[in-house]
Structure formats: structure tokens, C-alpha cells
Amino acid sequence: MKTVFTLILITVCYVTYAQTTNKAGTLDSSFGRYGKVISNTYEGFAYTSLIQPDGKIVVGGSGTYYKNNELLKGSLLTRYNTNGSPDLTFADSGRAIYMLGDTGTSIPVIHSMALQSDGKIVCLSPLATLHGKSGFGIMRFNANGTPDKSFGTNGIIVTGISVGADAPYDIALLPDGRIMIVGDLDIYGNSLESFVACYTNNGSLDKNFGNNGVVSIYLSTPIHVKSIAITADSKVVVSGAYRNYSKNFVFRYSNNGALDLSFGKEGMAEIQFEKSTTNTVNDMSIGSDERIVITGVLYLKSGKATIVVSRFTSDGKPDSSFGTSGYAYTEYEGGDAFGNSVAIQEDEKIISAGDYGDNDQALFTLLRYTETGVLDSSFGINGIQNTYFFGGDLGTSVNLQKDNKIVLAGYSQLTGSENKNYVDIARYENVIPRKQVIITKIRHWIQHHNGIEWNNINDISSYVVQRSYDGIHFNSISRINANNNSDYTYNDASSLSGTNYYRLQTISVDGAINYSNIISITNYDIKISPNPATNILHIEGLSSSSNIKITLVDFAGNVVISHQLKANSTCSYNLNIASLKQGNYLLKIEMNGEVVTKKFVKE
User: Measuring CA to CA, how many Å separate 469 from each of 285, 442, 516?
Assistant: First the structure.
């Protein structure tokens, strides 16, 4: 068997790689059932979620379920595998209900959470009581979902900032493990202050941060501080909105609580919204370029609620390159829309997630803005994707996986005779087109070994050899881990009949995936019969798309027959050899610039 190859791509270059099999924003059918997961071993509400480095999904909220005929009520922590199935190794068969201290008949809620580098999960609840002390609760769980008893009292600390009822909203972790919390002070006492609090890794207030662990935020107009995020250089960013006023704001602090005066105007930045009466801030994220993105709700003067996204530059100015004066909002037809969570893609496109509906029905909703603040028409339907579970569906927390798929967690409220609440998770396809460097090239086809050869390059973790029957749909057939070799080869012992297409998928040490050039290999299985032959030599397996030259050479090296054939669909030819003397001959067949040789005997 002889192989002929064509090099389709030769030059190392920059290319744009786009996968169009599944459009961004469509449900991922490999997750759960048709892209959706609904809690069936418990009832509950999901308010927060995160994705672990191994891809497992952790959801927090509140819930109820029966165990040994006992009804458990309390804060809910649950974990799912990457395919959406419950992680039975986590807590109590994948989920657990915890009472925050002795809260009595009230059902505490995990409102926000963060993941430590050691896999432990730190959670925040706005309500807890322990040994007669009331306040908000900070809990820490081990990686397996059990309470971390080395933290506080059996894994919980009940704390407060003011003498009244404080309202914490969000939690984040500094790289050194310190716990940051933001919220409002003494909400029932009509305080105008909000706070940023810093706790050490063991749960005590960090006296080296601010004023004995606390920074108070006071403006002349009442405010809500709702979200917190940490920059790459460990600065603390908090965001919120003025109550009853159409403006939101951002403060930035150093990691010791000092206001960063280089940010905005003396540490503070603001965006003023036109055509609206008021707004709320619900979530914030910081992009790789350190720009700050906030999502929430903008209430128009008509009274309609719309999803709004605003963006600030890294130095604290409204980003004029985004939307209108730094913000963009989307008004849904027929109902109100609420932006509850935000995520930023690698290409700086922005995902805002929440819910949309009217008095009769609510749905999960996702929308994607381009980097300039317009709806991305390549996502969902004109930039928006709605998802139905039961009709009372509220999306609360969105995350991006390492492969860029979108995970949106939330809950459904069923009214009427059923009157139940279910935790819901949806996962969506999401391919991010990007400029990628083709970092390696298949050098050539090794004809006698049916293999390919390429040069090794630095910073590659592994090579995956992929084969295709049509040059479009590729399957992985071998994985080769990179080492210090200068050259690599792969022999394909079971190549497909006809044309085979080969490429290399390269995986860098940081997980980036790139692709090599493609080569096409046609396996010509030339057969001759009969052998020995007397008058006619029948040849099969010729190319149907190439002109062919047939040459017959005796073993003294003399050309005794030479024919030029035109391409034909029969792929066969009868060669008249009646005039030849008896003896051994060599048949040479030239196709596509290559030569296939066969020996035969003339009787």
C-alpha cells in the first residue's frame, strides 16, 4: 500500500478559530437533562454558586429535606459533578442542610460564598444566632462539605459591626486568605452608613485593616453597598448605588483599608444614569484588563425594570468606550428584567444574568454585550437567551467554566397546590473566537511508517493527534505528553480507507488549546491480477481525480511499455502485456506526484 499526501497549510501564522457546531447561548445537551438540572432530593433556593478548579459546581442558598423522617431546614450547600449529576462524595449524598447556630424556626440563607486555595468554602449568611448572640454568620466548610470545626464554633462565627441589625451582602477573599465582607450598617435604625470588614483566616476581625477591622462608608445621600471584588494586586473594590437616585458608585481601597486616592476622584468613581428614576447594584466583576463591570437593575421613568451593565476604567472613570457614557441597558418586551450576576469573558465580552417576566411568569435570562456595550447578535437570539423551568424561575448566579461554557444557577417558585421551590442550574454552550498562534506544524508524512512528524516547541504540555475523514470533523486518536525531545512522530496503524486528514491539537502548560496545519493522506490500495499474468494485467485502485502514468520496466532497467491515462471514475485499467517476453517486471504508477510500484511475472 502506497500513500500520497497533500499539504493543505504550510505556513505558521495567526488564525481565527471558530467553532460553529453549537451556537453560543444555546443549552448544553451534555449537562443534566437537555442542559438543565433540577433538584429532586431537596427543595430550596439558590442564591450563590461557584465553580471549583476541577469543574465541579457548588451552589449555596437555603433548603429543606427529610432525613430519617426528620425535616431539616436551614442553609443549603450542594455540589454537582461536571455533567450535572449530584456529587455523592460531598456532604450528605451531594447536599446538606446546616442550621446557623440556634436560629430557631427561621431558615438561614447562604447569600454569598468564596473558595479558598485549599478547597475550603467560606460562606456568608445575613442571619445567625449562637449562644444568645445574633448577627450575620460566617461559615467555613471543608472540601468534602462538612463544617470546618477549626473555624469559630463548629465552623461558624456569628458577628456584627454595629449595635443594630447589619445587612451583609457579599464576600471575597484576599490572596493571603483574609475574608472581606461588605454591607449596610444598622438597617432598622435608618443608618446612612455602609461597611467593609476584614476578618483573618481564623475568623477574627483584622485589627490591621481600617479601624480595628472595619471601614465605614458614609455619603450624605443614603446608599447600599452590595458587591466586592479583589484586583490582581490585592486592592479591594466595592460597589453600590444611591438609594432612590439614579447613580452607582465604586470605591477602591488598599488591602489595609486605606482609601486609594489614585482611583477616580479621591478614591471614588460614579456613573449617572439618564432616563431613569433609580437603580440597584447586584454584582460586580473585574476583567483581566482591570476594568470594573457592574450589573443590576435600572428603573426607567415609565416604571419598567431593565437590566443594566456599567463599566469603569482601571483608574476609576466611567468607560466612555462602553455603551452610553459607560453604561448600557436592555429593555425587554412585555415584562421586567433584573440583572443579578455578571461574568466577563476572556475576550472582554460581558455576560449579565438574571430573570425576566411579568406577574404570571418569570424565566432565567442571559444576555451578552460586546466589548463596546451593544448586544452581541452572535449570542442566543439577538444577544439574549431565556430559559424556562417551571415559569417562576429566578436566575441568581452566573459563572464561566474553564472551557468558557456558562453556568447559571437559581431557583423556581411553584405556587398553587404544589407550592414548592426547586434549585435549578442551566449550562450553555459558549465558544470564544480568538486569535491563536499555530504553535507547531506537521513537518511531513512518513511514507514507509504511515506516520506524521513534527518539531517540539516550548511551553507545550501535550500533543493530541487528530484524524478526520472529511477535513472538518476530527477525532482524537492519540495523546503524546511533551518532554524535552526535539522531534515527535506518530504512526497510524489503522488509518481509514480513502483520504485521511491529520492535525495536531496542542495544549499549552496554562491550558490554552491551539491547532497545527492539516495534511491530507490518500491511501491507494493498488491491486494487480492475475499474477503471474499472460495477456492482460488488471489494475485496480487508481485515482479517479488525477491523470495517471503507467510505466512497465524490465529488470535490466529498460522501459518496455508507457501509457498516459486520463482521470476516470472506474479507478481501474486493463494493461495489454501479450507482446512481452516471459520474465519478471516492475509496474510503476504515477499519481498526484507520487509513485506506487508493484512486481509481477509474465508467463
Answer: 43, 18, 17
Per-residue confidence (pLDDT) for residue 434, from 0 to 100: 53
pLDDT number for residue 382: 94
Note whether 166-199+210-331 and 526-602 share their fold.
no
Per-residue pLDDT at 2:
37
Contacts of 56 (CB under 8 A, 6+ apart): 79, 80, 81, 82, 87
89 contact partners, CB below 8 Å, separation of at least 6: 144
Using the structure block, give the residue that is written with the C-alpha cell 427543595.
Answer: 43
Asked if residue 207 lies in contact with residue 245, where contact means CB atoms within 8 angstroms, the answer is no
The pLDDT value given to residue 445 = 67
pLDDT for position 413: 87
What is the Cα–Cα distance from 468 to 451, expressed in whole angstroms?
15
DSSP letter for 205, please. Answer: B
Closest of 486, 483, 431, 490 to residue 459, by C-alpha: 483
What mean pLDDT is reported for the chain?
Answer: 86
pLDDT reported for residue 431: 82
Q: Which three cell numbers stand for residue 205?
A: 476581625
- Residue ranges in the chain whose pLDDT is less than 50: 1-21, 103, 105, 435-438
Q: Which residues, 6+ apart, have CB-to-CB distance to 283 below 8 Å? A: 226, 227, 294, 295, 296, 339, 340, 341, 342
* Structure confidence at residue 91 (pLDDT): 92
Q: How many whole angstroms from its chain centre is CA 382?
A: 21
pLDDT digits (tens, 9 = 90+) for 481-540: 888 677 788 888 777 766 788 888 888 876 677 888 888 777 677 889 999 999 999 998
Q: Is the peptide bond preceding residue 530 cis, with omega within 30 degrees of 0?
A: yes
Q: Give Rg (Cα) of the chain.
A: 33
CATH class of the domain defined by 526-602 = mainly beta
Q: Does domain 2-16+438-522 have CATH number 2.60.40.10?
A: yes
Name the fold adopted by 166-199+210-331.
Tachylectin-2; Chain A (2.115.10)
Residue from 314, 149, 351 nearest 229 by CA: 314
- Are the C-beta atoms of residues 392 and 415 closer than 8 Å to each other? yes
How many Å apart are CA 459 and CA 450, to the nearest integer?
A: 28
Query: In the chain, what are the domain boundaries?
Result: 2-16+438-522, 166-199+210-331, 526-602
